[in-house]
Each structure stands twice: as structure tokens, then as C-alpha cells.
Specification:
about 20% strand, Beta Polymerase, domain 2, alpha+beta
């Protein structure tokens, strides 16, 4: 980390009081809450992707990062979905396609209700639109089946229908069908036929593959002064995904996901 000057990066990207730093602190509050609940109910979870990279390289957020990803095995994800809502403080809400009728993603978001965030994409029909962290289910599947675009049509419907109520009705029907019929059948098939690839659960339109031996057993790592759960072999995971992850990228090419961010009075 000799080439990383933490103070210079902070001054350039997320100085105290800046909108990005305020957003990061809200996300930190939410992941700390998830950690508390997971510890209480003995639910394993792990940081991964860019969030894990930030933990290892920066002991916290990548200075310019504006999202946070938490991974769980599907059975642990389902358990968290059961217990988390009753444990949350009043200013946080769990967002799934069962708690928000127009939310058609097949992973959950934990949302802050004291803010407004516009990603400029498909979130404009969602009920909850505050700062969020992603809670992502992983499962052992046959990768070609995971790559079936059964839920991707929802994104097409939204774009082509410009978010109209007619388009949203079709999206809700498709989401219900996949949640209750197609995806359970595909999961059962994978269990019966020995699906072995650890990847995102069905309905998530991104593709990543991990080695379960890199994740478990879990350990912990400092993240913004808090001990959070991380994969046991974070180094191998990060090298597989990012290569020489301890070196900084071209800082002139840094991109953000958020188009608009507002904070409301407490």
C-alpha cells in the first residue's frame, strides 16, 4: 500500500461533510445494523466485490465508492429476510419484491428513509428510494441455468413502457411467476442434479462465480472502524476478480452510480 496516500484520497473524493461521505456513513450505519442482526441470529454473511476490496485495501470504503454489497448463501439470506424487518430502527426499511410491489429485483435492499437517491435507471417506480445497501443471495447452481434471462424481460418492459402502469402490471406478473414457479423449479432441479457453481441466485442479471473454499470459513476485517465478516481467503477472491487489487486504478476514470442525492432532516 505504499502508493496509497489515504489522506490525499479522502481530501479528493470523500472529505468529511461531503455528500459522498455522508452517504457512506449512512451505508455504514446500515451494514452495522445487518452485522448486529446476523450476529444475534447466527446468520453468516460476507462482504464481497468492491466492498471487500475497500475493506482490504482501505480498511473501509474505497474513497470514491457509493455502494455496499453484502453476500449470503440463499438459506442464510432467507433467514435474514425473516428476522430483519422486526429488528430495524424506524428510519430503515427492507425492500424486496414482496414489500414494494414494483420492486422487481431478486435481491434485497436495505433502505434509509431519511434520504432520497436517484440512480437514473429502474428505481423511479419503487416505493423506497433512499440510500441503500444490497443484500445478495448466492446459491450452488448450474451456471447456464443461472444465465437464463427469465427476469431480464422485466427490464425491457420497463424501458419500452417508460414505466407506465400497464408495463408495471406486466412486470409484477412476471416477477410473481418467477418468484413462485420458475425459479423454485430451477432450484429444485439444481439440487437434484448436483449444481456446483457458487454464483448469484436466479433472477439477478449479473454473473459472478466464486469458490466456496475461498469464502468459508469466514473471518473478520476492519471496515471504517467496525469488525465485519469477510471471506476467509479474501486475497484469492480479490486477485481472481481484480488482479493486482492493491494498486490504485486510474483515478481520472472513477465513476459514480448516483445521479441525485438528497438528505432530509432527521
Amino acid at each position: 500500500m505504499a502508493n496509497i496516500n489515504a489522506e490525499e484520497l479522502k481530501a479528493r473524493f470523500n472529505p468529511e461533510g461531503s455528500p459522498l461521505r455522508r452517504q457512506q456513513l449512512v451505508m455504514l450505519e446500515m451494514v452495522t445494523e445487518v452485522d448486529r442482526v446476523c450476529r444475534k441470529y447466527d446468520i453468516p454473511y460476507f462482504l464481497y466485490g468492491g466492498t471487500l476490496l475497500g475493506a482490504v485495501r482501505h480498511n473501509g470504503f474505497i474513497p470514491w465508492d457509493d455502494d455496499l454489497d453484502v453476500g449470503l448463501m440463499r438459506k442464510d439470506y432467507l433467514r435474514l429476510m425473516e428476522v430483519l424487518p422486526a429488528e430495524l430502527p424506524d428510519h430503515m426499511v427492507l425492500q424486496t419484491n414482496q414489500t414494494d410491489k414494483n420492486y422487481f429485483y431478486f435481491f434485497a435492499k436495505l433502505r434509509d428513509t431519511r434520504s432520497f437517491l436517484d440512480e437514473g435507471a429502474y428505481d423511479r417506480a419503487f416505493t423506497y428510494r433512499g440510500i441503500f445497501i444490497d443484500l445478495i443471495p448466492f446459491d450452488k447452481l448450474h451456471l447456464p441455468l443461472q444465465r437464463l434471462r427469465l427476469q431480464s424481460y422485466a427490464y425491457t418492459l420497463y424501458r419500452n413502457g417508460n414505466g407506465s402502469e400497464n408495463a408495471l402490471r406486466k412486470i409484477r406478473a412476471l416477477t410473481w411467476f418467477n418468484r413462485n414457479i420458475s425459479f423454485p423449479i430451477l432450484r429444485a432441479f439444481c439440487r437434484l442434479t448436483g449444481g456446483k457453481t457458487l454464483t448469484y441466485d436466479f433472477g439477478i442479471p449479473f454473473h459472478i462465480v466464486y469458490d466456496e473454499k475461498d469464502i468459508f470459513p469466514l473471518t473478520t476485517h476492519q471496515f471504517e472502524g467496525v469488525e465485519l465478516s469477510v471471506p476467509g481467503n479474501s486475497d484469492h477472491m480479490l486477485r481472481s476478480q481484480f488482479g493486482d487489487y492493491m494498486s490504485l486504478p486510474n483515478l481520472d476514470n472513477v465513476e459514480h452510480h448516483v445521479e441525485k442525492l438528497e438528505f432530509y432532516d432527521s
